[in-house]
Specification:
Elements: H1 2-13, H2 18-22, E1 26-29, H3 40-54, E2 64-67, H4 74-84, E3 89-93, H5 98-107, E4 112-116, E5 125-130, H6 132-144, E6 151-156, H7 161-177, E7 182-187, H8 194-206, E8 211-215, H9 220-233, E9 240-243, E10 253-256, E11 259-262, E12 264-270, H10 272-286, E13 291-295, E14 302-304, H11 311-326
Parallel strand pairs: 1-2, 1-3, 3-4, 4-5, 5-13, 6-7, 6-8, 8-9, 9-12
Antiparallel strand pairs: 10-11, 12-14
Helix pairs in contact: 3-10, 4-5, 6-7, 6-11, 8-9
Domain ABC transporter substrate-binding protein PnrA-like: 27-333
Subcellular location: Cell membrane
Main location: membrane
């Protein structure tokens, strides 16, 4: 079986005909956050839409489409459904789909998959991974150069190898600026429960933390809601939220006495859309290539939004960014 799979991969590596390029189709299976999660699922879908527009394709199973997972039980069903529709490649969005991709890719050896944010070591799977710790490091620098209380917080969704990277990078970034800053770390145990995010944020803000970085998907919407409510009650409070995966400025906007204010300091950027767009074009033109591909600060796979950062903070962040790209700073990808 392995030799047949390898032979199939080698055939694809030889290139794709003009007709095959014209008929090329891609799909994605979401995590439970869905395509409007204001996070990496949404970013992935926006990249797929951009790819469709670039190639004059309309959304559909013969061009580009998505399969919505409402619960984790939907992963296998959706991956099977996508494979049965003979798409050229099916992207699985999020590390939680890894076991399902492993199983489905073995069941459909002639179907190609893109595993986003994890690794599946099979010849019909490409693993697209991101140096989230590098972007999180810059978020830590942003928090450290902004806090007025010398207290910052981190809210994670579910502990694991992916969110560990966000925590480790954030802590390293804060400490690189000022080791005396207190950092409180809490996990919600969920990526889809804004009420828990709100509760954690309320406790943190009541303890004089004034900047919270969340890496918790829709759970983080509760962090934004709590910060906005507190600022609405007392406009003199300078409270901030650092968003994740997409520029979450829209989540931080509020109106006070007829004036617009935004409590989204900045957001880390995981360019899942760019990765899917780029990989799809390369595969369409050159054929499928399995294995791990890394997206980091150096190739704009991750980054940080300008947000409401001061010029001074932006200048400091840029300096650290260049040091990371140059290899002068090695950002940890797991908590100590």
């Amino acid at each position: 079986m392995k030799s047949l799979l390898l032979f199939s991969s080698l055939l694809m590596l030889s290139g794709v005909s003009a007709q095959a390029q014209e008929d090329f189709s891609i799909g994605m299976v979401t995590d439970v956050g869905g395509i409007d999660d204001k996070s990496f699922n949404q970013g992935a879908w926006e990249g797929m839409q951009r790819w469709g527009e670039e190639h004059d394709k309309e959304q559909g199973l013969d061009s580009f489409s998505y399969f919505q997972s409402d619960t984790e039980a939907d992963y296998i069903t959706n991956l099977n459904l996508a494979a049965q529709n003979n798409l050229d490649i099916v992207f699985a969005i999020g590390y939680k789909l890894q076991p399902a991709v492993q199983e489905t890719a073995e069941q459909y050896p002639e179907q190609y998959f893109g595993m986003v944010d994890s690794v599946v070591d099979l010849p019909n799977v490409a693993s697209l991974n991101f140096a989230d710790e590098e972007a999180a490091f810059l978020a830590g620098v942003a928090a450290a150069t902004t806090t007025q209380t010398n207290k910052v917080g981190f809210v994670g969704g579910v502990e694991g190898v992916v969110i560990d990277k966000f925590e480790a990078g954030f802590v390293a970034g804060v400490q690189a600026v000022d080791e005396s800053i207190d950092i409180e770390i809490q996990y919600a145990g969920s990526f889809t429960d804004p009420s828990i995010g709100r509760t954690i944020a309320a406790t943190m803000y009541s303890n004089d933390i004034d900047v919270i970085f969340h890496a918790s998907g829709p759970t983080g919407n509760g962090v934004f809601s709590e910060a906005k409510d507190l600022v609405s009650i007392d406009p003199n409070r300078d409270l901030w939220v650092i968003g994740v995966d997409l520029d979450q400025s829209a989540e931080g906007e509020l109106e006070i006495d007829g004036e617009t204010r935004n409590i989204n300091l900045t957001s880390t950027l995981k360019n899942t859309g760019n990765a899917i767009h780029s990989f799809s074009n390369t595969m369409m033109e050159e054929g499928f290539e399995p294995g791990i591909q890394w997206f980091n600060l150096a190739n704009d796979g991750v980054g940080i939004a300008e947000g409401r950062l001061t010029d001074e903070s932006l200048e400091i962040i840029e300096g650290y960014k260049q040091q990371i790209i140059d290899g002068d700073i090695e950002v940890p990808d797991a908590p100590e």
